[in-house]
Amino acid sequence: MAANNSVTGDDLWYVHVRYSTLQVVLVFFISSNLLLIITFFKKEYFYTTARYILFAVALLSDSFVLLLSNIQLILLHFDVPIQVWLCIIIVVVVILYLTVTPVTLTVMTLERYVAICMPLRHGELCTTRNTMHFILIIHGLSSVPCILILSTIFVSASLSFYKQYQICLVELMLVHVWQHNFRAGLYQVQFLIMCIIVIFCYVKIMKVAKAASGEDKKSTKKGLRTVLLHGFQLLLCLIQMWCPLIESSLLQINVTLYVVVRYINFILFYLAPRCLSPLIYGLRDEVFFRALKHYLFSRLKRVLEIAVSPICLA
Question: Which GO molecular function terms does the record list (predicted)?
């Protein structure tokens, strides 16, 4: 009995450490995204330029996913059930913005393609007005999987189901195997289309890079690296779409194994792709990075002045 209690205590300690570590990481990246969003609104150039507007959309999308996924994680960790109708609202936003991010990345790749391969038309196509239309299109396309997945829940559940209390996981709402398969297949088709678009843009930009010279060549190569990073993000997002199918299978076999695999998947395929967006534009982009440094230093200077003022008065 002592041995069993010791093992249980060790397992419980490991779960709490793992959960606490994840909370620290999530708070850090949500705070980083918030800082980048504030920087975006501090300079008019950013919110009148297509690629920075799309970058802000990706940041907001990632922040929504991280925040709501963390709420689900907290409820799961403390084993807190909520009513199904409330869970569906959370799940709707998570499913929607899980798709908004990769669709936005695809549109950002197309914007780089237009900027490099059709520079004379870039100013005409990528105006602020058109970018707002693109954002509406992004959300419209992203809502299609969300509507279809929810439809499979609505057709197979009675009205009493929505008043029940359960742990807020979409896998528990998809009660039939065909629903899981439909969800996975839907995402695969969507991401296959996105991957084809990214590969097409990469090939076209590569051709321009070979023909370019001097500053144009340097700029084109930077655009090529950006497209590659977007492609890597999309690859992680594509793998992420297989995760629910794997997790739902494990849930039927072993709950402990399901929790461990879900934790690993969350780190590698949910968190990692959303950490690359700040890296690609927040740190690699010289203009944005200078604005970020200026904002940070000005805020730090103001905090120091406020802290020193009482000392000087004394």
Answer: G protein-coupled receptor activity; odorant binding; olfactory receptor activity
Angle between helix 128-154 and helix 50-77 axes, rounded to 10 deg? 30
Helix (H) or strand (E) holding 58: helix 50-77
Classify residue 13: in a domain, yes or no.
yes
Find, among 242, 243, 245, 237, the residue nearest to 174 by Cα: 245
Q: What is the mean pLDDT of the chain?
A: 81
136 pLDDT higher than 70: yes
Is residue 260 one of the residues assigned to a domain?
yes
Contacts 24+ apart (CB under 8 A), 257-263: 263/18, 263/22
- Give the domain range for residue 241: 2-285
pLDDT at 7 over 50: no
- Residue 151 belongs to some domain of the structure: yes
Cα separation of 259 and 254, whole Å?
9
Q: Could you tell me which residues are beta bridge partners of residue 82?
A: 166
Counting the structural domains of the chain, the total is 1
Show Cβ contacts of residue 49 under 8 Å, excluding neighbours closer than 6 positions: none
